[in-house]
Amino acid sequence: MPTVRRELYDALVFDLDGTLLDAHGRVTPRTREEIVRARDRGYTVVIATGRSLAGTREVHAELGLDTDVVCYNGAWIGRRDGTSPWHYAPIPDDLLREVTGAEARAEFHFRHQGEAKYTTRTGHPHHPRVTRWYTNAVVVDPPTGVLPDRDLLRVSLFFQGPQVVDAAWDTLSGEARERLDKNVFPMSIFPEFADVDLVLCEVQRRGLGKAETLRFLLERHGIPPERVVAVGDQANDLPLLREAGLAVAMGNAIPEAMEVADVVIGDHRAEGVANWMALEVE
Predict the structure, then answer these.
(1) Containing H/E element for 70?
(2) 3-state DSSP call for residue 198?
(3) Smallest Cα–Cα separation from 203: which of 115, 98, 87?
(4) Cα distances (angstroms) measured from residue 42 to each of 7, 20, 36, 116, 149
C-alpha cells in the first residue's frame, strides 16, 4: 500500500457517507484525530459529498475544517455559511417541466432550493421518515401548497426499484438527458434506512460531478490533480477518483470504485479511514 507523503501530495479529499462517517453516520474520535493530524502536517483537507450544504455543515464544523465545502456532488462549492459560492450549478429552469414527468412516476420527491428541500405530503409510509432525515425539509399540502419551480440544485426522486428509475428517466427527451445527470443508489446504504428497499435517484445539472473539487483545488489553492488524494465508495465518487493523483476506495465500496482505485482500505464501519491514515498518511 503506497504511503502518502507531503512531498508527493498536498490535499486529501473525503466523501462522507460510507467513507468518513461510521455505521451510525457519525465522525468517530479517532477519525477526527487523524483529520486534525493531517491538517497539522500541512495537508489541505476537503469534504466532497452528495449531501446538501445544510446536511454537511455540522460534520464540517465538527472536523474543524476551514476549507470550502463541496456538496451536491460538486454543484455547490463555497463557504460553510452558504454565502457567495465559488461554484453554483442549478438545474436549468427550462428543463424542470421534463423532470416533472419523472417526478410523477416516483413514490415521492423533494425539490432542493437554497437551504431547503420542498416536498408534497403523501401517504407513502416512508415519506415522513425521509422528511425527518433531511435537513430543512419543508412539507406543502396540495392544492394550496406550491413547490418551487426555479433555481433548483437537485430533485430527489424515490422509487420502489431500479427498473422504475430507468422508465422514469426514459420519459425525458434526449436533450434533457444530455444536459442532466442522475445518481442512483439504494437507500439501504444509509444507516437510518438499512431496512428500506427504496431507490433514490438524484437529478442535477450535468457537469464534472465531484471532479469539480479538483478544479477548485487547482484554481483556489494551486494544487494540481496529481497531488490530490481522493477517498470514496459510491458511483458519485467515480469522477473524482478517476482524476485524482491517488484514488482510495473503501472496503465497502461498489465494485466500480474498487476497479478505478489505486488503493482499497478498510470498511467505514470499522474506522477504515482512521486506520489507513494512522499507518499510511505521513
Answers:
(1) strand 69-71
(2) coil
(3) 98
(4) 11, 19, 10, 35, 44
Across the chain, which has 282 residues, the per-10-residue mean pLDDT values are: 92 97 94 97 97 95 96 96 95 93 95 96 95 94 84 96 89 95 91 91 96 97 98 96 98 96 97 96 95
Domains of the chain: 11-88+208-280 (3.40.50.1000), 93-205 (3.30.1240.10)
Instruction: Encode burial over 228-257: b for 16+ CB neighbours within 10 A, e otherwise.
Output: bbbbbbbbbbbbbbebbbbbbbbebbbeeb
- Residues in contact with 267: Cβ distance below 8 Å, sequence separation at least 6, in sequence order: 250, 251, 252
Strand partners, 87: 77
Distance, in Å, from the CA atom of 64 to the CA atom of 57, rounded to the nearest integer, reads 11
CA atoms within 13 A on the CB side of 97: 3
